[in-house]
Write a structure and sequence with these properties.
The protein contains 18 helices and no strands. By secondary structure, it is mostly helical. The chain folds into 2 domains: 234 residues, Hypothetical protein af1432 (Orthogonal Bundle), CATH 1.10.3210.10; 68 residues, no CATH class.
Length: 346
């Protein structure tokens, strides 16, 4: 009898121990392009590794979460948000005996298509680009087409589905995808409260009393309450959710954050300037498509100039977008007077 490879052993172990509602890698719908199985890793853990090692993932460390150009090292970026979503989602999946590898792969890839300057950047491209722009759709485009010199990451169907459907309105085909979708909301509501308090936009005492009474009076307690409730309500069931009582306060807290932080003039004070940067960059590159990087310009014949320019801008970090704006639109004599140092590297 041939010795099992580590991957085959792990797949057998998952089949024997995971929930009947878990997604097993051996039952995956597969990849668009067949590849030989890895002797060590399941297909889902292999997908996670492909995402973590791609360029789009590395750029998340310099993309805004909520606060533009924050003064301090402890504010969340799109990368730290991604890691927090992954941690929360993995904790839930492990407790529910779902597939933690699939959960982590979806979580790591869910925001790869996000623009610079957070949702303000997404709003700008949504206004400009024919057909609109949504970061979840762009994340799918990144892993299917833009990464790896146009070959994409060739991920499994289940990971791609989870990335596309992670927004509140999405309907993932796996419970692992549903876990990531809920973990995304748990993460951003709670860490945005933390950042808003650090920035002086909120005080802990400003939070709705009913939400605090039910969910907890600290970052740690609120996350713990939500995770425990999700596990209690979802264990042994073919669905993921919260109890009506907890979800009602969770939703109320989300509404409070939209009204008091996400639309707050202090938190969003630089937003109009950031939007102007992206609008002018889009107009410039649309008129000078020959200056696009080769990896984006090659899609013009198939997808059109607007789409190629949007791909380029969506892939920028905040810092790179600002550097490009200064390089293209600020007279060099002004930069010399102001002592501005421009690094033209990507």
């Amino acid at each position: 009898m041939a010795t099992e490879t580590p991957r085959v052993y792990y797949e057998r172990l998952q089949a024997e121990t995971l929930s009947p509602y878990a997604t097993l890698p051996q039952n995956s719908r597969g990849r668009e392009v067949y590849v030989e199985p890895c002797p060590l890793r399941t297909d889902f853990s292999r997908d996670r590794d492909r995402i973590v090692h791609c360029k789009s993932f590395r750029r998340l460390k310099h993309k805004t979460q909520v606060f533009l150009s924050p003064q301090g090292d402890h504010y969340r970026t799109r990368l730290t948000h991604t890691l927090e979503v992954s941690q929360i989602a993995r904790t839930i999946s492990r407790a529910l005996r779902l597939n933690e590898d699939l959960t982590e792969a979806i979580a790591m890839g869910h925001d790869l298509g996000h623009t610079p300057f957070g949702h303000s950047g997404e709003d700008v491209l949504g206004e400009i680009l024919p057909g609109g722009f949504e970061h979840n759709v762009q994340s799918l485009r990144v892993v299917e087409k833009l990464e790896n010199d146009g070959a994409g990451l060739n991920l499994t169907y289940e990971v791609r589905d989870g990335i596309l459907n992670h927004k509140r309105s999405g309907k993932p085909c796996t419970l692992e995808g549903c876990v990531v979708s809920l973990a995304d909301r748990i993460a951003y509501i709670n860490h945005d409260i933390d950042d808003a308090i650090r920035a002086g936009v909120l005080k802990e005492s400003d939070l709705p009393r009913a939400c605090v009474a039910v969910l907890g009076d600290s970052h740690r307690k609120r996350i713990n309450t939500m995770i425990l409730d999700v596990v209690e309500q979802s264990f042994g069931k073919p669905q993921i959710g919260m109890s009506p009582h907890i979800y009602g306060q969770f939703d109320a807290l989300r509404d409070f954050m939209f009204e008091n932080v996400y639309k707050n003039p202090v938190a969003k004070g630089e937003e109009e300037r950031a939007k102007r940067v992206l609008r002018e960059l889009f107009a410039y590159y649309l008129a000078h498509t020959g200056e696009l990087a080769d990896e984006y310009r090659k899609y013009i014949p198939e997808d059109g100039e607007e789409r190629a320019v949007a791909d380029y801008i969506a892939g920028m970090t905040d810092n790179y977008a600002i550097r490009e704006y200064v390089r293209l639109f600020v007279p060099k004599s002004w930069m010399e007077i102001g002592g501005v140092q421009i690094n033209s590297g990507g």
